[in-house]
Design goal:
The complex is a heterodimer of chains A (about 425) and B (about 240).
Chain A lengths: L2 E8 L9 E8 L6 H11 L19 E4 L2 E4 L5 H12 L6 E4 L6 E3 L2 E2 L2 H10 L19 H11 L6 H5 L1 H5 L6 H11 L7 H10 L12 H5 L6 H15 L8 H15 L4 H9 L11 H19 L21 H15 L5 H4 L6 H5 L24 H5 L19
Parallel strand pairs in A: 1-5
Antiparallel strand pairs in A: 1-2, 3-4, 3-5, 6-7
Helix pairs in contact in A: 3-7, 4-7, 7-10, 8-10, 11-12, 11-14, 12-13
Chain B lengths: L3 E6 L9 H14 L1 E5 L10 H5 L1 H17 L4 E3 L2 H16 L1 H9 L17 E3 H9 L1 H7 L8 E2 L25 H8 L3 E2 L18 H13 L13
Parallel strand pairs in B: 1-2, 1-3, 3-4, 5-6
Helix pairs in contact in B: 3-4, 4-5
The complex binds iron/sulfur cluster (2 copies) and FE2/S2 (inorganic) cluster (FES).
One iron/sulfur cluster binds next to helix 6, helix 9 and helix 10 of chain A.
Chain lengths: ~425, ~240
């Protein structure tokens, strides 16, 4: 059996000492998990090592940890893979597997973090229960199955906090509502039985630390062991708030997004000066009166532009003037407009979590040309993505094989 | 010896606030004999922002760019982390469902364009990936006339070219998050390890939450690596 070195970040507050690193060696099968390794250390070498776990099968969400810097579940990470990851980065196959408590949370002891203020409080912040309107029906609620399947992805959350640990907006702004809570918000916004959809969206758009405080860093998508892809849920909340409900947010997020989209419709490529202006003060040059906030924002961004000029980054002054920008040649812009008309008419939203992906055609994969491997063609590494995607399934309306798990979040706090 | 010929999407920022992006790439590509056919009719990738408005629109716009590239018969290259990520996201959806793909292609038919899934030899890769995977670091090393010697360089990748891993080809190329370090070494300089190398620059929220954004920038550029420093007492 191979031997692994676990480099664990320890913290034992009652000693009065600060955190320190300690290395342990364990002999275990590579298929066993990092959690198995930690428990073996605790059982055989150091009974004071504190680890939180329960199910050991990626179900309970107790064992959120950082392994080689990646927030994840200790019970879902195999030792062999963790060793490979550690070695790859250090260019040394024997480099220790680095195990730390989750980030963005106070550490209670060793690998155990306090999730109250950074996770549970935020989950409660989004009112994580159904608020139906009117009297309940005599019997059960009847809803179209598709609409429930739509929320299964956010229902798959096991509240492990790995996404919160990894979140880069949370790191900069501890008040950010955060990936897990916002994914949970989508679970209710998307539920047809809920009667407070607009109020929920309005609330999250009016909070400066709400849906428009996410920096789009994808950390939560990579961290989540259950394929919830919290960032995708946040973007859906933005689409629902901005487009479906016509809600303007305090962070100017919708204004920015609308300006961006309009500029591409008009010009095909992004005119950054125009975007800077329009994001803060839409219609500044047009008929609309800008708000005082918009003027402040625009003035606030000037130092950035001027600094750019001074350092010679923006070569020429014209680049600063909105509207002086590269145009697409010939009739290309007409065709971009055509793409807009078509897409705005349909607004189809393909959710890969539900439809799964088609098989990759083998020829494309096996061709020997140096450029033949399809970028981004890999399957999603998700527990619940259906294996569907036979040619037939792709042609017909997607048949979701909803293996809906019972919802874990209504069982109350652990 | 132009043994690499590619359809080139310059992106928007290289025509705006960041002209050095195109300029430096063009000098290097020329020296290495990489021939580029510029896609001057192609459009913005949407930078994730258009997808936030309407995913079908983002997919259609990028399908158009892909189709323009495919019509040249050449694989495609971009020079921007955000372009790579936003385009890979759309490509994943386009490739996932043939009915959806056919629907999107309807919008391109007027222009005589069609995005074809899995077209032989067609990929969309960032210049960094082209340098490492297609040109090769060994060949690159041979081209170095003045090694960067004493220079210590901290790599900064950008989120979109790193995550999410399942979408941007890490199954086939698991070391893409180490290419900058390898490139820096190949040019004779020393890569500096620091915590921010794979964090966010904060730009996506600069117009929305200035404070969050600027704090992210500061954290990305200032923090030494947690792995190389002794643990601090305050956690
Ligand atoms: S994408 Fe948004 S929510 Fe997810 S980790 Fe990044 S900042 Fe946080
Ligand atoms: S969204 Fe994923 S990573 Fe976040 S708490 Fe839920 S299961 Fe854990
Ligand atoms: S121990 Fe239950 S999720 Fe890891």
């Amino acid at each position: 059996m191979p031997e692994y070195t676990l480099k664990v970040r320890r913290y034992q507050p009652e000693t009065g000492e600060g955190p320190y690193w300690q290395e342990f060696k364990v002999e275990l099968d590579p298929d066993l998990s990092v959690l198995d390794g930690l428990l073996k250390v605790r059982d055989e070498q150091d009974g004071s090592l504190v680890v939180r776990c329960s199910c050991r099968a990626a179900i309970c969400g107790s064992c959120g940890t950082k392994i080689n810097g990646q927030s994840t579940l200790a019970c879902k990470t195999q030792l062999g893979d963790a060793q490979h990851g550690a070695g790859r980065r250090a260019q040394d196959g024997t480099a220790p597997i680095v195990v730390e408590p989750m980030g963005n949370m106070p550490v209670v002891k060793d690998l155990v973090t306090d999730m109250e203020s950074t996770h549970w409080e935020k989950i409660r912040r989004v009112t994580p229960w159904l608020l139906p309107e009117g009297d309940p029906p005599e019997r059960e609620y009847v809803v179209p199955p598709e609409s429930m399947i739509d929320v299964t992805q956010s229902m798959a959350c096991i509240q492990c906090g790995a996404c919160v640990s990894a979140c880069l907006s949370m790191e900069a702004d501890p008040e950010f509502v955060g990936p897990a809570a916002l994914a949970k918000a989508y679970r209710f916004v998307g539920d047809p039985r809920d009667g407070q959809t607009r109020e929920r969206l309005y609330d999250l758009a009016q909070d400066p630390h709400g849906i428009y405080d996410c920096t789009h860093c994808f950390q939560c998508v990579d961290a989540c062991p259950k394929g919830v892809a919290p960032m995708d849920q946040i973007m859906r909340l933005r689409r629902k708030a901005g487009h479906d409900q016509d809600i303007d947010d305090v962070n100017n997020g919708r204004r920015h997004e609308t300006a961006f989209t309009k500029i591409i419709e008009r010009k095909g490529t992004l005119d950054e000066s125009l975007l800077l202006q329009e994001s803060y003060a839409q219609g500044f040059v047009g008929k609309l009166m800008p708000t005082s906030g918009a003027i402040k924002g625009l003035l606030g961004s000037l130092p950035t532009a001027i600094r750019g000029l001074r350092t010679g980054k923006m070569r020429s002054l014209p680049k600063l003037i909105p509207g002086v920008h590269h145009k697409l040649p010939g009739d290309a812009q007409q065709h971009v407009k055509r793409a807009y008309e078509h897409a705005e008419e349909h607004r189809e939203e393909l959710n890969l979590y539900i439809t799964g992906e088609e098989e990759i055609e083998p020829e494309a994969d096996e061709a020997q040309e140096p450029l033949a491997s399809a970028v981004g063609g890999g399957r999603q590494d998700m527990d619940k993505v259906t294996e569907g995607g036979s040619e037939a399934a792709g042609e017909a309306a997607p048949t979701p094989e909803a293996d809906v798990e019972p919802e874990p979040d209504e069982e109350g706090d652990r | 010896m132009a043994d690499l010929k590619l359809a080139y999407w310059p992106g928007c920022v290289s025509r705006g606030f960041t002209p050095e992006l195109h300029g430096s790439m063009a000098l290097v590509a020329d020296r290495l004999g990489i021939e580029l056919v510029e896609l001057d009719r192609a459009n913005c990738c949407g930078a994730g922002v258009i997808a936030e408005h309407n995913t079908e629109l983002a997919d259609t716009l990028n399908a158009r760019t892909f189709a323009l590239a495919q019509s040249t018969g050449l694989a495609m290259m971009n020079i921007c982390s955000t372009c790579q990520g936003a385009q890979s996201e759309c490509q994943q959806r386009l490739d996932a469902d043939s009915a959806y793909r056919a629907h999107i292609n309807e919008a391109l038919a007027d222009e005589g364009l069609e995005y074809e899934k899995g077209k032989e030899g067609w990929t969309n890769k960032n210049f960094l990936w082209i340098l490492v995977e297609e040109y090769g670091l060994d060949r690159l090393r041979e081209q170095v006339t003045r090694p960067l010697g004493e220079l210590r360089v901290g790599p900064f990748y950008g989120c979109y070219i790193l995550r999410p891993k399942h979408r941007i080809g890490y199954e086939d190329h698991p070391d893409r998050d180490l290419y900058l370090e390898r490139l820096i070494e190949a040019l004779g300089a020393t890569p500096v390890e620091y915590d921010g190398a794979r964090k966010c620059c904060g730009f996506p929220v600069i117009t929305m939450n200035r404070e969050t954004s600027l704090r992210q920038r500061t954290r990305s550029t200032r923090t030494p690596t947690a792995w190389s420093r002794p643990a601090r007492s305050a956690t």
